[in-house]
Design a protein that fits this description.
The protein is an alpha/beta fold. It is 40% helix and 19% strand. It has 13 helices and ten strands. The radius of gyration is 21 Å and the shape is globular. The N and C termini lie far apart (58 Å).
């Protein structure tokens, strides 16, 4: 069997159905803040300063494919942080008006890292890095995520631009046309309101997923509705959090490195701790584990199929509340 290339693997890991994640409506401030929270720990560990500037005239919500933008922005922030150790990474959100009067949203990520020479810039969005060009890898920007980012931007009518000089950092910018008027939301994908989540305002949840964009998606959907969202990249990290942080609900990915969701669930149930009975929801794109009966055998209480909508999270919360209501009676 032919071994998958890094590019094939990256494509497989990329979001398969962006419409289900954030309903095609991009909220710049919330998305940037969520991405900041995802990368803050790594930035602190390498003494890198994260700075955000969002212009005051940016609309609160824009009718753009939010999941694809978040994926692209997350990729370029990741690149910047990796190559600005001990420096500064700036995320800047502005808008510009073309000569034809068309508005564009501009999401720029600047770092003051090693930068790139022109030969690297010319190939930065190529799908492969030639083995006889090791200087490309040294700068760290020849990365399979960048060709994917360029492709996704093209799908939504935008583009990605890069500007860099050796020893003077790099700036990647996402340029997106948008329509300032937002139509009212209709249909079952939006059949919820803020008041539906009000009863869960004191909830604390733990999201266990090795793919930080999935953590990001949950944060963006729920940050305004619940008290606290903890995140972990694998089962061991989840167990550490549960030892010190009481939570009402665990969203558990199935396939993870180090300690997967099945093993982590079994360890939680067998722990003998006061959190051994915490409600655990399988959060997975694997159809095999989306069947409730199988997850119950593992020790899980519910399932959440990826990709998911905000209404799906509300359903999971409603199900989680039932045992608490019955106990209260």
């Amino acid at each position: 069997m032919k071994k998958k290339s890094h590019i094939d693997q990256a494509k497989q890991d990329a979001p398969a159905n962006p419409v289900c994640a954030t309903e095609f409506h991009f909220q710049a401030r919330r998305s940037v803040n969520a991405i900041m929270s995802i990368w803050q720990k790594q930035a602190d560990a390498q003494n890198t300063k994260l700075v955000v500037h969002i212009a005051n005239d940016i609309p609160e919500t824009l009718p753009i494919d939010a999941h694809k933008i978040q994926y692209c922005l997350n990729n370029i922030v990741s690149n910047a942080i990796k190559h600005a150790q001990g420096g500064t990474v700036k995320i800047i959100v502005t808008k510009i008006i073309s000569k034809q009067g068309k508005p564009y949203l501009v999401l720029s990520v600047q770092d003051n890292g090693v930068g790139m020479e022109q030969s690297v810039l010319d190939a930065v969005f190529n799908n492969t890095a030639s083995q006889d060009q090791p200087h490309k890898k040294a700068y760290g920007y020849v990365d399979t995520s960048l060709p994917i980012t360029q492709g996704l931007m093209g799908q939504i009518g935008g583009q990605i631009l890069v500007n860099s000089q050796v020893n003077n950092g790099a700036t990647f910018s996402l340029l997106l046309p948008y329509t300032p008027v937002i139509e009212p939301l209709h249909g079952p994908a939006h059949a919820y309101s803020v008041s539906d989540f009000r009863k869960f305002s004191a909830y604390k949840i733990l999201v266990v997923d090795d793919y930080n964009l999935n953590q990001l998606t949950v944060k963006i959907m729920l940050d305004d509705h619940i008290a606290k969202i903890y995140t972990a990249a694998n089962g061991y990290d989840a167990l550490e959090i549960l030892h010190t942080c009481p939570v009402d609900l665990v969203l558990m990915d199935i396939h993870m490195p180090v300690l997967d969701g099945i093993e982590a669930t079994l360890k939680i149930r067998e722990s003998g701790q006061n959190w051994a009975g915490v409600r655990i929801v399988a959060m997975t794109a694997d159809p095999h584990y989306q069947h409730m009966r199988l997850c119950q055998k593992i020790g899980m209480d519910d399932t959440l199929a990826k990709p998911f909508r905000k209404a799906d999270l509300l359903r999971v919360f409603e199900n989680a509340a039932l045992p608490y209501k019955s106990v209260a009676v």
